[in-house]
Description:
- The protein has 435 residues and is an alpha+beta fold.
- It folds into four domains: 44-95 and 173-242, Rossmann fold; 98-165; 253-324, no CATH class; 342-429.
- It is 43% helix and 14% strand.
- Helix 2 (24-32) links the parallel strand 1 (15-19) and strand 2.
- The chain is globular, with a radius of gyration of 24 Å.
Amino acid sequence: MNLVAMAAHVPGLEAVGFDRVDPALGREAAHALGLRSVRLEQADLRDARDWGEFDYIIAHGVYAWVSGDVREALMALIGRSLAPHGIAFVSFNALPGARLRTMVREIALLHAGEASGTRARVERARELYGFLAPWAEERPDAYGQVLASELARLRSLSTAVLAHDDLGERYEPVWLRDVVQHAGRHGLRYLGDAEHSELYADRRPPGVDQQLDAIAGGDRLVWEQYADVLAGRQFRQTLLCRADAPMDDAIAPGRLASLWVAATGDAEPGGNGSAGAGAMAVLLARRPQALSCGELRELLATDDVAALCRELWDGVRQGHVELRAAPPRAADTAGRRPEASALARWQAARGPELTSLRHDAVRLDDPFGRFLVGLCDGTRERPALVDGLVGAVGREVTLTSGGAAVADGELLRPQIAAGLEHNLALLAQLGLLVG
């Protein structure tokens, strides 16, 4: 579904994906959404098929969860399939931090014992997490602190993520150095990480960067590897390119002029130099809206692009500004005839797991909310949406009043009408409405 979501939200994208498990659901979705440029097949990495040449290759949740021969087949596939100026994304559990996760994983598998099937194994693990959580709270020793931190993470994961990431058959964390060396044997080199949090100004104590410079001796890979050691990094989303591809890795804030920017959820008014009428103040006032550098210039009435980019770069380093390479596809507010994405409408008819236009996973457990998503097809104004919701009560949607199920939606029309704007605002906030 990840690839289908990309193709649904990026017109003109041609995509090929394969998995050892038959991607029947993905094919069904692609067909229903009319995505003729998406091809999904059942295949094994070790088949060494010629899939063609690609500008982007994504291997998410594979490298550190498979055997050595499959890793070799994966890197060989990237090496022969990546276009001259293409980028490959390879995620993996990273050392040294992921070693701490190994401890809790092994405890969970011990508790799961001979539990048959993925769901049973996850249920046994959740049972264990609930048992351990009270004993890990406020413990001053290192074991208790690690346990508490991991349990908080594990208990927040969905069944599918927990089953794959932490309770799968294999869990083999690796050093960044080893992944890059492996890539090098297939004509690839390290470009950077998709998660730029290592650039945050408060990531390391003052003076540490200079010490890292001395240790690395100008080698960026060594620098980042030791930065991982200092941070206890547990997961990486590494970007690779061809070894002969031109690359300029100098950080130049002026390059932000071609991007779109938005305030992150962590940014606070007055807490990051944004008290004045600067770029951060504007972004905070319009959060979660993303603006281009040109739009910011107009709003700030300034022609000093260099100064604007420096302020934005400072916001990036503080973790208060997020960067986007394309204009936003999601609406900030519900329009006259609200329209949810075709993919979200298709998903809402089948269950609670949806994909936003920002490519975030969204869980909408409320059947009433999911039915509203389906009604938002761009043809209905507010009165028609209310009519649709009222008509669904007692049929597609079950609502209660005073503890009893309501069979006639007309009895709840005033409440449904009064709550519609709030529900539409929520859908916009989740990134489900088309801009």
